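Bug #77: duplicate submission created two jobs. Keeping one. Sequence:
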Amino acid sequence: MGEADARPKSPSVRVQTVLYENAARDVARFVAGISAACAHALGSGRITSADLAIGDSSAEPVASGVEEVLAEGPSTFARVTYLHFGANLGSAGGHNRLFAATDADADAVLVVNPDTYASPRLVSELVAALEDPSVGIVEARQLPLEHPKAYDPVTGDVSWASGSCFLVRKDVVETTGGFDADLFFLHGDDVDFSWRTRLAGWRVVHRPTARIFHDKRLDERAVIRVSEREREQSALASVLLPWRYSRQDLALERLEQLEAAGDEISRTVAKELRARVHAGTMPEPIDPDHRVGEFVGGEYARHRFSYAST
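Kept job's structure:
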């Protein structure tokens, strides 16, 4: 058998993103970048086709940004689907709705944030990692603020993949059921999805040559700027994740820290979680042998560096 015959069949890819009050010009920028990356992958034979699915959790539709870009010339995408949800479903709920509402024939799905801009080789590099059948999810490298979590420089293996940009096999979505939108609205959904993917037998890898610009900023303390909603959801995940992954000791320790915190967001989240503990409505624990759950210094993986000044 020749080398060309031995190479796995090129997959079809569906790109999906979830909007929330994004400006039309930013949506247009996103579509232009991801379209160019898909065009490169199509031209090089890395993929056989590309579709685009956009879900919108905004109060009012912001689809005009997409329409303007696609009207400028022939589309890279064989099909474009736009869904206005009519409610804020969050990242997890929005992507699950797109998983269910769009054509499931694509071999892989590119889950990506709309506040990103793809490098030309993004899709080609991500797809290349899926040539290894053991890989279920492959994560892109975010720029200019690279995610600090550690990964194996030889194999690419990583604890979890950021939902800002990763490519996932259709089989993984079908086996795991996608994101757990009932438990995670915004933060922790990608960690949980990655860990359940690993428990199901697939690897999760980081691909540093697959680059994407992600519009994140540092404040004067060298800490990434986050909204109050993001702080709230991050606090919830900091207790729900260790509880689900059989580290109730860490979950209760974190809950006590939130209760002792001086800010209103932490105390409000702690009150909600404490009520769930008493009511017995916390998530059912999994991973009793601690095969995938990783908790290091309040993070969900060992970190290579920190943006904080200390």
